[in-house]
Design a protein that fits this description.
The protein has 676 residues and is α+β, with helices and mostly antiparallel strands. It has 22 helices and 22 strands. A hairpin with a 6-residue loop joins strand 19 and strand 20.
């Protein structure tokens, strides 16, 4: 296993070398890292298989080499983080912007729970697509996290570091988590920490503004040999609950870990009697709770209502559903959606069911104690990928450390009948723990939404190839009045809510209305080249309805020749063929399809009208239409009329026959005309 683990670690280094190569032109110093990482990766792949044995003289070198590999992976990761920040310095989510802005306010003695976070959007250049919206279309502008989420930044702000502070803290926290996992894993499995730490999902979330990275080192500390709280002694046994309390003071996800951990503490101590086990659980709760209160107590005392409102915002509902959990059945398959509250009830049912199953199968379930919160979030109305993968490093630490401490000898005891009652009782309990969440799931996907909506038309931005206006038909199938609010989903991301330019604010029962929607900003405009769907949200009850995916025609055109590398004399003819192809660039044999060829000069000071002749039309006419032949090819004869410093750029496109929007743009062909 050790050889295979180190081979994977070496492959990770080689992959980092490949990823960083694209930056060497702008940042030549990256070339040194690319070469060294590639070479080190090859050595890491090869040497473990040489079977050099465990000679005493080799042990120090192996330790140096292993930590050298850790250092190389971290160096590559942090270099990549540096490059990503310089390429896109804007904060990717509102949560990371809120945390740093709250830290700025706190450093000036202002209670951030009483202050709007709205200025954070502009201050940290957060795209509107990074906002969190409520179902009524308004963005969340209140601080929504416990106090340690922003207090971690305050010392650095006081030292004068503010530029990209939150993003770099995220990146450094993930680096600390990688090292922590490497340290506590059994020696044969340690290289897997480097593999896990280099996965694109984690690195992308860390730089993209997902602040789960801040609590991960703390939760890893809580997971390592967590059963020592029951079986150990002295102050070290309190490292676990203190770490858990601090993790809970950063973000709400660890809150869902706590119930499983407390049940585990009780059952781990059960052989000593229920009294001692319950007292142990109370001590664990007290240690974790007091630690949680330490950073929060000041703001809780200043304004209990504001603090509670803030930290409970992610759990209180009213926020648009999103993510890749079971909510996708309603968002994309149009199953249910009539009650967003049903998904909240479903998550509670799953939590209770998992707690029951965990208790009934303990200690068989002990290795997965720290990851059972992820299935709960999978069934919630907001179920992002970060919720599903954040706890995996913690699972690895928890499972390996507790199983090494206890072995497998006590596992059959879960089914022995003495600790958890008769087998039949356990079977009934397990059946109920599955049946109740299953029933809640069926209910959530069967409550039909009251609205039926469909796209009836659109207006595009032409060559920008985005949609800036939509027309919809909406029908209220319920017996009560609804107030719809509209947004667009493309690629699983919900945009800023669109402005209703025409259409009733309230749609009566059984009524059908026509709505005209306008994009509020450019990031909200979906690409005309891909599919999108419109979503309608209502309150009282909270529900979501969506159109079928609106997929523009997938055909487009390709130009032949692909490039003209030599100047073309004035008066000479350049034959340009535009071929109709499908989504996979396979030829489409359809005659009579109009293809439009445009011409323009892109000068560094702006656009210049060019004067080329296309298919005998007047000089400079653009676009010019030609029709495809039986082979799906439209031909354009282009003749230059004047020599210019800049080339003339030609681009072909198609036009939708009913909505008349352009689409299917070809690549650009540059032709330079000369006098000879």
């Amino acid at each position: 296993m050790s050889c295979l683990s180190w081979t994977l670690a070496g492959a990770v280094l080689i992959n980092w070398s490949i990823q960083l190569l694209g930056a060497v032109t702008v940042y030549p110093w990256v070339a040194a890292l690319v070469v060294i990482a590639g070479a080190w990766g090859l050595v890491t792949v090869i040497v473990p298989w040489l079977r050099l044995g465990n000679r005493i003289g080799l042990l120090p070198w192996r330790m140096v080499a292993s930590w050298g590999t850790v250092g190389m992976v971290l160096a590559c990761y942090l270099a990549w983080a540096f490059l990503q920040i310089h390429a896109s310095p804007g904060y990717g989510t509102d949560e990371i912007a809120f945390d740093q802005y709250a830290a700025v306010l706190a450093s000036h003695g202002v209670n951030p729970y009483l202050h709007s976070m709205l200025p954070a959007f502009a201050k940290y250049n957060v795209s509107p697509d990074g906002f969190t919206y409520r179902v009524n279309g308004s963005p969340v502008t209140a601080l929504s996290y416990p106090s340690l989420a922003f207090l971690l930044y305050v010392p650095f702000l006081l030292l004068g570091w503010s530029t990209q502070l939150a993003v770099m803290m995220n990146a450094l926290a993930w680096a600390v988590a990688i090292v922590a996992v490497f340290l506590v894993l059994p020696r044969p499995y340690r290289p897997l920490a480097l593999v896990l730490g280099s996965l694109a999902a984690y690195d992308g979330y860390a730089l993209g503004g997902v602040t789960d990275m801040l609590y991960l080192p703390l939760l890893i500390g809580a997971a390592y040999r967590w059963t020592d709280f029951v079986h150990g002694s002295g102050w070290r046994r309190y490292v676990g609950p203190v770490s858990l309390g601090l993790a809970m003071a950063v973000k709400q996800t660890p809150w869902l870990v706590a119930p499983f951990l407390l049940v585990g503490v009780v059952l781990e101590a059960r052989p000593r009697g229920w009294g001692r086990s319950l007292r142990g659980a109370m001590r664990y709760v007290a240690a974790a709770g007091l630690t949680f209160l330490v950073p929060n107590l000041y703001y809780l005392a200043l304004s209990p209502r504001a603090w509670l409102h803030g930290v409970l915002t992610p759990l209180s509902g009213g926020i648009v559903p999103a993510g890749q959990g079971v909510i996708g059945f309603s968002l994309y398959l149009r199953l249910g959606g009539g009650s967003l509250a049903a998904y909240s009830l479903l998550a509670v049912a799953v939590l209770l069911g998992l707690l029951a199953a965990y208790a009934l199968t303990y200690p068989v379930a002990r290795p997965v104690t720290f990851v059972l919160a992820s299935p709960v979030l999978f069934f919630a109305s907001r179920s992002f990928g970060s919720y599903l993968v954040a706890l995996l490093p913690v699972l690895v630490v928890s499972a390996t450390s507790t199983e090494l401490a206890h072995g497998n000898g006590d596992r059959p005891g879960a089914w022995s009948g003495r600790q958890l009652g008769r087998r039949s009782s356990r079977a009934i309990g397990l059946a109920a723990s599955v049946a109740i969440p299953a029933g809640a799931l069926l209910y959530a996907v069967s409550v039909n939404t009251s609205l039926a909506i469909r796209v009836t038309g659109l207006r595009s931005t032409g060559q920008l190839a985005t949609v800036e206006q939509l027309t919809l038909q909406a029908t209220n199938r319920s017996g009560h009045e609804v107030y719809p609010h509209f947004s667009v989903d493309q690629g699983g991301a919900i945009t800023t809510f669109w402005q209703v330019a025409a259409g009733p604010r309230a749609l009566g029962p059984g009524r059908t209305a026509r709505y005209t929607l306008r994009a509020p900003n450019f990031p909200a405009q979906p690409s005309i080249a891909g599919g999108f769907q419109v979503m309608a949200f209502t309150t009282r009850p909270g529900s979501v309805a969506e159109t079928v995916p609106y997929i523009p025609d997938v055909e487009h055109v390709t130009l032949t020749p692909e490039a003209v590398n030599q100047p073309i004399p004035i008066g000479a003819t350049v034959k340009i063929q535009a071929r109709l192809v499908n989504q996979l660039d396979q030829p489409v044999y359809e005659a009579g399809v109009p293809v439009y060829l445009g011409q323009v000069i892109y000068d560094q000071l702006g656009l210049i009208y060019s004067e080329a002749v296309i298919n005998g039309r007047p000089p400079g006419q653009t676009p010019v239409t030609a029709y495809t032949n039986a082979n799906g090819v439209a031909t354009f004869d282009v003749i230059g009329t004047q020599a210019t410093t800049d080339p003339v750029y030609f681009e072909a496109n198609l036009v939708n026959g009913t909505q008349f929007f352009p689409y299917g743009y070809s690549s650009i062909l540059a032709v330079r005309f000369s006098r000879s």
